[in-house]
Amino acid sequence: PGRLTLYGVVNVLVVCTANICRSPTAARGLRVGLAEAGLAPESVRVESAGVAAADDLPMCEVADTLSAARL
To answer: Which residues of the chain have pLDDT under 70?
Structure first.
């Protein structure tokens, strides 16, 4: 329990436009949900990306604060 062993590590990529608000928030929520479901973090790797994202631009502060408070 808590480990996906049949396929090894499962990679999930959440994508939006700029990767500063929606996809990082969704990725955070997915990580929290997977942890609550008992899946080990090393079994499912969740990342976020943007199709028009600038390199090294951090998550929007408002989205970060709100998603951290709600999750």
So the answer is: 1-7
Beta bridge partners of 68: none
- Residues 63/24, Cβ–Cβ less than 8 Å: yes
- The H or E element containing residue 46 is strand 44-50
Q: Which residue has the tokens 């590590």?
A: 9
Rounded Cα distance between 2 and 36, Å, is 10
Polymer length of the chain: 71
Contacts of 50 (CB under 8 A, 6+ apart): 15, 16, 17, 18, 19, 20, 23
At residue 65, what is the residue type?
A: T
Write out pLDDT tens, residues 15-27.
999 999 999 999 9
